[in-house]
Amino acid sequence: MTIPKKASERLRRRWGRIATVARKELRQLMRDTLTLGFVAFVPVVQLLLFGYAINQDIRHVETALVDQSNTEISRRLAGELVATQTFDIRFQPTTEAEALKLLQEGEVKVVVVVPHDLARSYYRGRGAEISVRVDATDPTLARAVRASANGLVDHLNRRSQVFMGGQEDGAYRAPRRRRTFGVESELIHSQQWRFSVLTYYNPELRTPVFVVPALLGVILTTTMLLMTALSLVRERERGTFEFLIGTPVHRFELMVGKLSPYVGIGLLQVAVVLVTGLLLFRVPVVGSLLHMSVASLLFIGANLTLGLVISSVTRNQLQATQMCFFFFLPSVLLSGFMFPFEAMPAPAQWLGQLLPLTHFIRIARGILLRGSGLGDHLLEVGALLLFLLVTLALATRLFKKELG
Predict the structure, then answer these.
(1) What does DSSP say about strands 193-200 and 110-114: parallel, antiparallel, or unpaired?
(2) How many whole angstroms separate alpha carbon 350 and alpha carbon 345?
(3) pTM, whole model, 2 decimals?
(4) Residues 324-345: what's their mean pLDDT?
(5) Which of 5, 21, 241, 355 counts the most CB atoms within 10 A of its CB?
(6) 280: which strand partners?
(7) 371: left (phi over 0), alpha (psi -120 to 50) or beta
């Protein structure tokens, strides 16, 4: 079947026009270095984040060891804990109350309490019981700590049976019912070591308790960053920015005035998330709402000023959206929202420390779930304040009350 000459000519012209438009779009894309860099760089960043930084193997969890025994057996036990690579003993407080205070403040995730009669119970064969208290606000971490503790106690008990000859009937005497008064030898238990793992702040290991406080930070990051970044860019595209040029408003006053409504919107979102989490998911609110509001204000301000920086260096809404996405992706992956922060390699943790979402999630979980205050999170509060001041100074310098 042959195509008529006139139809063939129309088809050829149509494909020619399509090729012309495609060449024009390709040239425009090549001139837009930001979009081109976004297309080429984002896949590499995603590959590095998911392939290298994201790791589900929990290692080197901050641990406080309360050694009330202070004997050779207890020191050997501490070495066994470190050898699992799950426990990283950072503090050795003298009392259990000090260790639990560190757990509440978020300085450690695990508290191991060795009883004072450890050596006596061990050598008499009565069994030594070690108490392990774990911060279960992260259920994944709590399950990993429990699994590691159970694995360690099984290893220690098997090794104890080898030393005792492996003869359960001869080496371990089962308790019998007493029928006479008098001195009775102490019973030898079949398990020389016992670990009692207690989960704090989320004993049921419910995922919503872990997710909702962090989701508050993710929602604020998404909305505050996008709304601010697109605000000025949209005005430039629509031409309404010209009206602001003719006013006597200083650029700093213009910045503060444009950001003020979004602060109220952010606080409203905080209230909506907290009420919804409490009613639907039974997420506890243990700490002070005033402290939570102050932390939210700092975090909202940090995201708003960052959005203003993005709007100052981009020319259209597409570029602003791309830059917001480029900042949002590592914030979600490296902040501890989706994956345990302790499982990430050191370089990924260093990068995560530069992100405001990382510090806000720690504050939110500490206040809402553990009942800590802002005074217990001075490093996180200082990091948010520093990020806010740096981005505010940068936005003030980059923001120009002029066209072009």
Answers:
(1) unpaired
(2) 9
(3) 0.79
(4) 84
(5) 355
(6) none
(7) left
